[in-house]
Amino acid sequence: MIKAENKIVVSGIHILILLCGIVVSIAAAGCGSDNSTITGEKYHKVNGVYGTIKISGSTTMSNLVSLWCNGFSDIYHNTNCMVESFGSRNAPQDLVAGGIDIGTMSEPMSAKDIQDFKNAYGYEPEGIKVAIDMIAVLVNVENPVGCITIDELDGVYSNTYSCEGSADITTWGDLIQDGTWKNIPIKIYGRTPASGTYDVFRKTALCNGGYKDGITELASSKDIVDFVSKDVYSIGYTGAGYLTSGVKAVNVGKTKNDCYPPKSEFAISKQYPFTRDLYIYPRENPSKGMKKLTREFLKYILSKDGQEAVLDAGFTATPSGIINEEKKKVSEGSANEPLNPKTAL
Amino acid sequence: MRRFQFITLLILLVYSAGSYSAAQNLPDVVPPPSGNNQPVDVKVGLYLIHIVKIDQPNQILSGLFEITMLWKDDRLSFQSTDGTPKNYSGADADKILATIWAPDPEIVNQASKPSIQKNNLTIFPDGSVIHRYIFSADILTEFDYTRFPFDDQELRVEIQSFTYNSDQLVFTASEQYTGISKLFRSDDWLAYPASVFAGFERAFGYETQNRSYMLYEIKLERRSEFYVWQIILPFCFFILISTCVFWIHWVSIDRRVAIIATFMLTSVAYNFLVLKYLPSVPYKTMLNAIITAGYFVSGIYIVATITFELFKEAGRLRAWELGNIITRFLAPIFMIAIWLLIYYIFINKELQIIYLVK
Prior knowledge:
The structure holds two protein chains of two kinds.
Chain A: H1 2-29, E1 51-57, H2 62-75, E2 79-85, H3 90-97, E3 102-105, H4 111-121, E4 128-140, E5 147-149, H5 150-157, E6 187-191, H6 196-204, E7 216-218, H7 221-230, E8 234-239, E9 247-249, E10 251-253, H8 264-268, E11 275-282, E12 290-291, H9 292-302, H10 304-312, E13 316-317, H11 320-331, E14 335-336
Parallel strand pairs in A: 1-2, 1-3, 5-10, 6-7, 6-8, 12-14
Antiparallel strand pairs in A: 3-11, 4-8, 4-9, 4-11, 4-13
Chain B: H1 2-24, E1 40-55, E2 60-72, E3 86-89, H2 90-97, E4 105-107, E5 115-123, E6 128-140, E7 152-161, E8 169-173, E9 179-180, E10 189-191, E11 195-202, E12 210-222, H3 225-241, H4 253-274, H5 286-313, H6 317-347, H7 353-357
Parallel strand pairs in B: 1-8, 1-9
Antiparallel strand pairs in B: 1-2, 2-6, 3-5, 4-7, 5-6, 7-12, 10-12, 11-12
Helix pairs in contact in B: 3-4, 3-5, 4-5, 5-6
């Protein structure tokens, strides 16, 4: 009798445990987004971080910087960002002028930029790799082209034909075997010279050549995607993070046999040719005294939280080996401790 | 027929002549200052002075703001021995502004036309201009109340120039004139320093023409004390106190169920009473989830009470007694655990389950 009673009571408890288990399982199932590629540590809050971080540079990185700023100010409510995204080319001159704390660039600084920076501050700028971007060559989703080689791209975009084997290409018939596309001219979109993407594409796809006339230059990646999604006969290039349903990324390779799509695995293995690192350049030298605010912001960017923002912005997270190297750059030296923390109103 | 054609022609001629003369009478627009063919750099700052109200269902925030614009126009430079600037306010400032070039910042996400309260214009001898005005505006927001009342929101104010493209005018951030005013007071919200994002946006309908924009993001954190002390704690108290029935095991089932049901109904009545303080949104907020869980678990208490009573009637006194003893402790712990789980799920931004539910 007692056995039977106990059995009933135990069953009741089991049901309760089961209910709790179901609730916890549902919660766990909903956990996070795609964190599988991010292996770093989460950012740990420290005391005494407040103030304004001034950032200038890349338009490609504008969404990413916005995510970092929002995430950082969620942790430190008394911090805020002033961000100007007018193109990577503005970052070196703004750093030299001293008006900003961090420059964002979608390409590394040129030798001249480094020298100007060194002349101004007496030390070399410290470029920190924070994300990997792929420049996607995109066409309208209804366009049948599947693979395009670098020499073909050179023929489409360039008038110098610097890549081996390239020749002028003006119609889709040169890229697609389908006869219906034979005499249809290619409407070409590209970025403005202030953009880092413009320069990286010129160096990689045009083999350091020059752009031809007649390319419609647009100021942002979003605009390129927008125009290509509306024009079936157009082609453009942009950061892979900006792709939408109206466009598709074309596989790219040196030959038709080694064409790769702009996906993370091919970016990390460098098989996709238009892969580039995204950089941030702090004005202060991490080893010669850097504001605590800037240092913590950089640490946040290199943490798991910061790299998740990289994924959210559509870029590829930096591999953990590189992240560890970049963290060493940031953690060296001593920080200037702030004295009078500003309080929230 | 010819007469009709002649009259029509005459009317068209008179009309076009009128239009031409009307166009001739249009005031001349002062062009922007052109220095080295570069766009005019207009530094813009925005202060949040006061939040008047937040219309939660329609997602509109009514607030009082101060905008400050700084630019340089060499055409306005004048001789001055002591460097004293010319200062104009109110109607005087309006008169001067009608004769000089000034940027035209428009709030992109405004719900209605802003109303200017105070206006000030300062022109320095070197042609530098500071134009500032206080205005009230209804701003469209995208507030997410999922974590209500432990939510924090981002008030976004986007400013663009609709008259001038990015070749003529570029907005850059003025740190000095951006932030939360010292006059800011709100019983409901804490406001934190504003972040500013500036860049170019393509002008609608144009292929290569861009406009300069500035996006101000002001972080607002809700003061949740009122909701905790006036709503959440009393409600939780009602629900938890109903578990006392498991301690008074000698009373009959109808009394025990009646006690739980009374507390449950009191909670329902209380919920209706405080409904006006809750945001009217079509999805579950954290507070909704806490209240719903309270009702749900109260229902479980009633089922448990009846089940134990059935044991007693079936002569299973040991099960009845054990059930009562265990439930005395398990019932409140189970309820508190559910509430903590809800809090954890809603407050933790990494748990996306609440958005799946939404």
